[in-house]
Design a protein that fits this description.
Strand content: under 5%
Oligomer: single chain
Largest sheet: 2 strands, antiparallel
Number of helices: 8
Radius of gyration: 34 Å
Number of strands: 2
Structural class: mainly alpha
Length: about 200
């Protein structure tokens, strides 16, 4: 006897993750990911804000109209020392025409990765798909093996146990029906074959 909803060709079980389904290891990875993303994003944002503020103030004090003219002038060294600008920020300012769009793009990408990464870890369904040979007839062992593969995740513990119990009941019913059939009919008879084919289905 085969369980209802035959799974020839494979089946798909999906898990909608909730707070209780996040393991300690996954939670650690999520926290680490968020800390790294926030640190990198904050650092890039700080560099951009500091550089823009420095250039804005320097343009006003030097009475120069454009950033390019300011960078090419010899006044920047004085302002570097006056406002205690680090060497790394000085390098960014000297190549501001390159770093301005680069830092802005990096900041946008970090925000996208941050949002998408948290969505993946917290809300996206995690499908577990097990495939079988379509031409191979399935037996009870195949079903049990498939359920064992799904039981790796704790979130599947309850549905796996329930399904296993149903399979055991199917198996016991098959044995009982076959025994009753042998008591009333002889193997090879038309009636026997008819009822036996129904049991097998």
């Amino acid at each position: 006897m085969k369980p209802a909803n035959d799974i020839k060709g494979g089946f798909n079980m999906s898990n909608k993750v909730s707070k209780s389904n996040i393991s300690k290891k996954s939670l650690y990875k999520l926290v680490t990911f968020n800390v790294v993303m926030l640190f990198v994003g904050s650092y890039i944002g700080y560099m951009m804000a500091r550089a823009k503020n420095f250039l804005s103030v320097s343009l006003k004090l030097s009475h120069i109209d454009t950033v390019t003219e300011l960078i090419n002038s010899n006044k920047l060294d004085y302002y570097y020392e006056k406002y205690n600008i680090s060497s790394s920020l000085q390098f960014v300012i000297r190549h501001w025409d390159i770093f301005n769009p680069l830092l802005l793009t990096s900041l946008i990408m970090i925000i996208i990765v941050f949002v998408y990464g948290n969505y993946i870890n917290l809300f996206q369904k995690n499908p577990v798909t097990i495939f079988f040979d379509k031409d191979k007839e399935l037996d009870m062992d195949t079903y049990y093996n498939a359920l064992d593969a799904c039981s790796v995740k704790k979130v599947f513990a309850l549905p796996v146990n329930i399904t296993t119990e149903h399979l055991k009941r199917f198996s016991n019913k098959e044995v009982a029906l076959s025994s009753m059939l042998n008591n009333y009919f002889t193997e090879g008879e038309m009636t026997y074959d008819k009822f036996n084919s129904i049991i097998d289905e």
